[in-house]
Design a protein that fits this description.
The protein is an all-alpha fold. Helices cover 46% and strands 0% of the residues. The protein has a domain of 39 residues.
Amino acid sequence: MSAKIKYNDEPIEPKVIQDFLPPPEELAFREEGVKVTIALSKKSVEFFKAEATKHHTQYQRMIRKLIDTYVEAYDKSPPSRSRSARKRASG
């Protein structure tokens, strides 16, 4: 069995954590997609299909996320603002 928890009267030091979650309207926002045709190696596609099956998702979604993450890491242009952020700034 597990040991019983022993409580004492030590002072609690609360810390304020900055809100880092986006508002719900930004979570619902989908970026505009552009359909492309690309030839990938059989090995790459098989890898993503197997991983997608393990994680109960679509392999195309995994590839898209990989490319988006790469762009975020290496894109030097200023980040674009979402529609809701533009509305708040102008309103």
